[in-house]
Automatic annotation (TrEMBL):
It is an enzyme of class 2 (transferase). HAMAP family: Formyl_trans. Its EC number is 2.1.2.9. InterPro entries: Fmt (IPR005794), Formyl_trans_C (IPR005793), Formyl_transf_N (IPR002376), Formyl_transf_N_sf (IPR036477), Formyl_transferase-like_C_sf (IPR011034), GART_AS (IPR001555), Met-tRNA-FMT_C (IPR044135), Met-tRNA-FMT_N (IPR041711). It catalyses: L-methionyl-tRNA(fMet) + (6R)-10-formyltetrahydrofolate = N-formyl-L-methionyl-tRNA(fMet) + (6S)-5,6,7,8-tetrahydrofolate + H(+). This is Methionyl-tRNA formyltransferase. NCBIfam families: fmt. Pfam families: Formyl_trans_C, Formyl_trans_N. It comes from Deinococcus hopiensis KR-140. Keywords: Protein biosynthesis, Transferase. The gene is fmt.
Length: 315
């Protein structure tokens, strides 16, 4: 068959390498991104990165506010002549009538080894849960949440020092390479149904996911710090005041959860449920981040000070 024509659905920076890799090998007949949103203190209406890049490249661009029941957009996708659509971090659920339009349907680049970590935040939850390996899945999109059959899959080892920022970069590069392979092999890829019994979920993060659980062991505290590095970042509380923490790593020591074990030029050592962590930087609300040692001196924090304990509410 001749090279397929592609409709690309994506929005954030993560999707840019995937778009670039596709357009280098195939004809992109339509780019679909989320609508422009107010950004910054001035609330300036700003296009998502994929929309901005499509405009730079002169590619046909659509930014529908809704998909379900949107006959105008359905006609635009149909008239584009796309043989297949590719989604990468687009951010909207695709209704069945839309999925049926391209000849080869929709292919999704999902940043986990499905059926593990279905959902909006697979990168973050893989780190929070302490995984050592993740990967990219190219799947055929159906009406479910990442439930479609698997077309291609490749593992990616997670470096111990990676946060969600570095892992996202690595997975974006992998996804770009793997989707090009999948598109090059259409229609010969054999779909493999997912094993529902092995499915796990990765829901969208909320601010509370960044709150330190001092009662957990030190490894779990560091895993969470790495997983929420992009957003919402790591938050602790001292006498009710919120503090953003940076540079968390495993340290020696044992004490009561949240207890400061020592302060030195390298930062604060704080006890967890088992073991301890070192904090390199602290950022009080409405102030800039500073070295943990400098903050401790100005805040009167020393060995024996206890951070507030926070636990998620029982469901």
């Amino acid at each position: 068959m001749s090279a397929p024509r592609i409709a690309f659905f994506g929005s954030p920076t993560f999707a840019l390498p995937v778009l670039e890799a596709i357009r280098e090998r195939f004809e992109v007949v339509l780019v679909v991104a989320q609508p422009d949103k107010p950004v910054g203190r001035g609330l300036k209406l700003t296009p998502p990165p994929v929309a901005a890049r499509a405009a730079e490249l002169g590619l046909p661009l659509a930014q529908p506010k809704k998909l379900r029941g949107n006959g105008t957009f359905e006609a635009q996708l149909r008239d584009s002549g796309a043989d297949v659509a590719v989604t990468c971090a687009y951010g909207k659920i695709l209704p069945a009538p839309l999925l049926a339009l391209p000849r080869f349907g929709f292919l999704n680049t999902h940043t986990s080894l499905l059926p593990a970590y279905r959902g909006a935040a697979p990168i973050q939850w893989a780190l929070i849960r302490g995984e050592s390996v993740t990967g990219t899945t190219i799947m055929q999109t159906d009406e479910g949440m990442d439930t479609g059959p698997i077309l291609l899959q490749e593992e990616l080892p997670i470096a111990p020092e990676w946060t969600s920022i570095e892992l996202a970069d690595a997975l974006s590069t992998q996804a770009a390479r793997l989707i090009v392979e999948a598109l090059s092999r259409l229609p010969d890829l054999i779909p493999t149904p997912q094993d529902e019994a092995k499915a796990t979920h990765a829901p969208m993060l909320v601010k509370e996911d960044g709150f330190v659980r001092w009662g957990e062991d030190a490894g779990a505290v560091v895993n969470r710090f790495q997983g929420v590095a992009a957003w919402p970042q790591t938050t602790a509380f001292l006498n009710g005041a919120r503090l953003k923490l940076g540079g968390l790593g495993i340290a020696e020591g044992q004490g009561q959860p949240g207890e400061v074990l020592g302060v030195d030029s390298e930062g604060l050592r704080v006890a967890c449920g088992r073991g301890a962590v070192r904090l390199e930087t602290v950022q009080p609300e409405a102030r800039r981040a500073q070295s943990a040692a400098l903050w401790a001196q100005s805040a009167g924090v020393s060995a024996g000070t206890r951070f507030d304990l926070w636990e998620p509410p029982s469901s």
